[in-house]
Predict the structure.
Amino acid sequence: QSVELLQLPEFVNFNLNVQTILGSKFFTLVEQDQYALMPAFASGLENNLLTSADQVALTQLYNQSNASIVADAATASVSSIAAHTILEQNYAFLETQIGQKMYEAVIKPPIKPYESTVLSNVAKQYEKLIMNQAPQDVIDAFSACHEKSLVPDEMTQQFEYLHETFKNKYAGLPEFNTENPYLVMQMRHIFYPSIQPKLEKNYQAIEKFVLNGFHHDQGGVLEQSGMFHVINKVYGQADFGAEECFAGTLDWGDGIVTNELKTFFPQSWSQEKVAQVIFEASSNIIKTIDDTPSKKLLECIGPRNIIIEIMINAKNIIISAYPSKKNFKM
């Protein structure tokens, strides 16, 4: 099967372009797995033969490819580059327990280019904390934020299932359909917390904790596990069909409190139902709240008249969706 993939016309053309950068063919088969395609330029990485400009060129190549098999293969290779680069930097953060956990999560299949970037940025911030002799409690809180944000394997597998379930089912915004005519959703953003500690410029304190995404906790599992508790929980109005939706600020323990008000879909709903509700609501637009060339924020109507705000970027990716504050009396 691997040989057949390498003989695809799309890959042959892609390989010709890559040869102009690397001077060699893009992939070689290995005995590790009969279906595995491994980067042929691993030795080039180790010997610093692949420049940052080459990496950018490779990224552009896979972004331009219309063949999913070629794009997936190239994405895997660029992710491999990121992982190698992180190791080569010999970041002190990788010697910590949370650093090791994050690195292990990055190198596990499936492809995680976003997580690779996050790890690199976190490692650089950690270096600055150490260089500026930040207080230990600040370093501990910084590490705790990123440990709480690690997505468990079973959750990652669930996100993959959801992506496949809703693949190519819902049309995107026509003005954004040049690259992808169908909607895709950032499941991780909706269903799992990502806590960002915003550091002060002198790296001596954390200015605030920012919660990125997280608008549904299926069955209240994460809350019941003690991962967080909701401060001043408020439920939605029945008039909007939002009596099971709730809003509040979250306390994550270890002195970590995210003060921005968050709204949540009903805990009684499954993740699959939440995703379906969001996709379907995206075509029931009440008005456009914000409109830029790169994204739109839309006010939409969901089941039983729940008002949902949905943000869609220029690639027709739903980058955020949540019950509107209009559903609540505040």
